Structure formats: C-alpha cells, structure tokens
User: Which sequence fits this backbone?
C-alpha cells in the first residue's frame, strides 16, 4: 500500500481522519512534554539517574495495567475512554507547572506515573477504535498509518 492508499483512507473516512489527527497532536504533545521533563530534571537534579528513573516510571503503568486496560477498552464505550483519558492527561500535564525547584522533583515522578496510567488506558482504546472508523478491508492500511505516524513522531520528537 503506497502513500495514495493512506491518503484515500484519510479522505474517505472522516471519523478515522479525526482519530488520526488527534493522534498526531497527542504524540507531538507527548514528545514536547518528554523533552521538557528531560530539561527540567537535568536542571533541578543534575543527575542522569533522575531521567532514568522518570523513564522507568513512564513504562511502569503500561506493564502493570496493560491487561486491565485492554478489558476496559473492550467493555466501556471507546469514545468515553478516549475522552476521559485525554482530559485526565491534560490536567496531569498542567501539574508540571508546579515544579519550580529541586525540592519539587518528586512531583515529576508522581505526575509522570499518573500521565502514563491514563495513557495505558487510552492506547488500547484508540487501537480498538480504528476498526469502527474504517471498512474491514481498510483496517490494515489504517493500522499501518498509525504505526508510520508513531514512528515519524518519534523521529520528529528526537530531533
């Protein structure tokens, strides 16, 4: 499937297009947040271990809650799960504004855990929602576009 196939799915399926565009914005926000946290932890702690601990905490909720999150995505309305998780993540990310000196670094870890806990529920709901926004023959194309988008945003965020 070439780029024209991806563009066709985006043109023909407005529900998928909105989900995909939301994903692009969300991924960009995740990368900007991560870069800001690297800088913040480096400035306030001066230790690489602080960044390592934050990265560990970022992956912990997915490992702990992944199986439960999949069940939630299957049992509750996906739109509700997506909207609730994004609202929680937005509120949690605003909490980073309260980190103003080295004594507040602990807050980075708590807020990161909460942010990624919401993401642990968001991600499977988003993946499951794709099937309801495209035709059965377009699922592979839509999933591939999601993967390409994640990879592109990874590269963009790293730059």
Assistant:
């Amino acid at each position: 499937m070439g780029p024209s196939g991806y563009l066709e799915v985006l043109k023909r399926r407005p529900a998928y297009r909105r989900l995909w565009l939301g994903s692009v914005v969300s991924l960009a926000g995740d990368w900007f947040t991560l870069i800001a946290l690297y800088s913040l932890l480096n400035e306030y702690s001066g230790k690489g271990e602080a960044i390592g601990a934050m990265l560990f905490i970022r992956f912990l909720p997915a490992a702990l809650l992944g199986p439960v999150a999949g069940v939630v995505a299957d049992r509750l309305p996906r739109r509700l799960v997506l909207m609730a998780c994004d609202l929680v993540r937005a509120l949690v990310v605003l909490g980073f504004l309260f980190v103003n000196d080295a004594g507040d670094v602990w807050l980075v870890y708590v807020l990161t855990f909460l942010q990624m806990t919401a993401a642990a529920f968001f991600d499977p709901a988003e993946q499951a929602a794709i099937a309801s926004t495209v035709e059965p023959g377009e699922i592979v194309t839509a999933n591939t576009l999601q993967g390409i988008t994640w990879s592109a945003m990874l590269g963009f965020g790293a730059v």
Summary: The chain has six helices and no strands. The helical segments are 3-12, 14-45, 48-75, 78-94, 105-130, 139-158.
